[in-house]
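input
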Amino acid sequence: MKLSAFTLISLASLALATPNGGERGPQKPEQKNPLVTSAELSNTIYSSNLLKHTKKFLKFSQFSGGTRAFGSTGHNATVKYLKSLLDNTGYYDTEYQTFPYLYSEGTAQFSRFTYGPGGYVAAPLIVTNNLGCEIVTKYLALDVGPYVPAGSTSGVDGNALVARVQAGETVLGTLEVEATDEERYASNVIATTKTGDKSNIVVAGSHTDSVPAGPDINDDGSGTIGILEIALQLPRWSVKNAVRFGFWTAEGYCLVGSEHYTALLSDAERAKIALYLNFDMIASPNLGYFIYDGDGSTFNITGPSGSDHIEKTFEDFFKTQKVRSAPTEFSGRSDYGTFLDVGGQADVNYDICYHKACDGLSNINLKSWSINTKAAAHSIATYARSLDGISRGSDSKREVRVREPLPHDQRRHQSCSHEILIL
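output
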């Protein structure tokens, strides 16, 4: 997920309601178990189980040199583990959603940009505009190809270099990049309850991949493990509305897995999603509980109809836990962003080990993780029982923006939906 430099958060999970495309009322399958309740489902969450899954994720990361980046052996072991446990419950219809995508990683003295080639250059530094490459193109040899090695540095160091160059000093710079750019296969895991109303689906999601630098136990092993444990406990009860768990791949490469899923939904399937709940970085060492501002009362940016109700659902839960919470702004910088066309919300988080090798077992706050997972269980149970407060049908009609899936050859020229300049 993408870091908000000014936000200290541990959880945010809202949802966005979507129109109901069907006339069919709630299904009434045989219910051998009682209807799920928030209190009962939340009470099944134990930190010992969260830690058990964490140790598995860390073991999987060792298969790939300490990472669970998408398409790696470590990531493939992660998604296989998820599907196997969910299949063993017999409670879900599960599937892999597998597709090819361009993987990119590398090392450099600076922070390397993904999807750039390796290479070496030594030359005087030139100051150019923040946007565009008009000046830079004058100094590029014509035989470097459409892409060039690139890196980034902090604003503090960058501004210091700019000041030296603008003062007339010739500052010599070197950049050496070792890069890997290769096509890999990535897999989402989708699990939907066999029972419950399939025309009013409650979707909960998180991303399963890490960055190449580390195992990413907080970002987002914590969210994945949290909703996995909820999914494993839910079969003790029945649900009125079907519940779907989405475990997304390649979030770190611009929300690829969740976008792949939403882009392939038909209009009819999209209309069946009542709301989306996203859980990302919910075990932060810097403790704080921020909820996305679904009603727009703080940041003047509202979510689709129903988001205000979900914001209050989380506020009320945290009050019962005597936990102070506060609103945070919609940013679209996690997998919920792809559901803004369908329904969704999530969280961002401040973490000193963000996207680093140190995001391991020592980087989690077990107490906040447990509370946040209980909050997730509360929200899932609440809406699995009833969608009261979530507008469906004609009352919630709104414009739906659908992103068309791009062929691989076109997507390779884009980064986070922004076109990459081809020189």
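quick obs: The CA atoms of residues 58 and 261 lie 27 Å apart.
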